[in-house]
């Protein structure tokens, strides 16, 4: 039986069948640890990720009983608590692709980049590291409503030595126009939660002519295109591609466009 699994650092999060007994889960967990020497902890995901804070309830199965770990990807390290903060290792390639696209488009001037729903700051930090390597400057704002995630983000900015690139502006994304008076971004990255609210109205208030927006939507392709067109009342060219599955027959889509 193949058990769905997410690996974050040295923690493996397994999603067992609802009716599986605890002894069978422990047996599978011990076998997993034996086969994967880099994994120290097996947790069971007992609830779906939900709410604005994007937390998921976990249950300890076997190994070291912990929730904190350091995850490595794209030449970066991220310290986090898997139960208190949202982090998807499956978005590693997404972070790489968006960072590469921004690095290509960034001019010699110091560009302004806003990442909404930034969590423990993986998008801001991957972008910052690539810009730094390319010798390009930018001011990157990492915005997140989860206070605990922002604490980890602060540590991760230091851990990856990108303090000159990334700063944290905490709080509700919809309040950003009030916090960032007269701020206009060159790039806005929106790895948003799966909520009804699109937050595109907020992004538009923080945009200027030519701002590039990277918007994540859920459902099918037409649904995502329609929710963008319903919010933006001018003709824009939208590039859209599938960015992973979140459930059977339900996908995450990345739509990028300039306003």
Describe the structure.
With 259 residues, the protein is of the alpha/beta class. The protein folds into 2 domains: 5-66, Met-10+ protein-like domains (GMP Synthetase, Chain A, domain 3), CATH 3.30.300; 88-258, Vaccinia Virus protein VP39 (Rossmann fold, 3-Layer(aba) Sandwich), CATH 3.40.50.150. The protein is 29% helix and 30% strand. It is built from 7 helices and 13 strands. The termini are far apart. The relative contact order is 0.11. The model has no long low-confidence stretch (mean pLDDT 94).
At a glance:
The chain has helices at residues 22-35, 92-105, 122-134, 147-159, 176-179, 200-205, 221-231; strands at residues 5-8, 11-14, 41-45, 58-63, 68-73, 76-81, 111-115, 138-144, 166-170, 187-190, 212-219, 239-247, 250-258.
For the record, the count of structural domains works out to 2
Any low-confidence stretches, pLDDT <50, length ≥5? none
From the 3D coordinates, which CATH architecture of the largest domain would you assign? Answer: 3-Layer(aba) Sandwich
Characterize the overall form: globular
Give helix % range. 25-40%
What distance separates the N and C termini? 48 Å
What's the CATH superfamily of the largest domain, by name?
Vaccinia Virus protein VP39
Major sheet strand order = 9-8-7-10-11-13-12
- What CATH first level of the largest domain would be assigned? Alpha Beta
Number of helices: 7
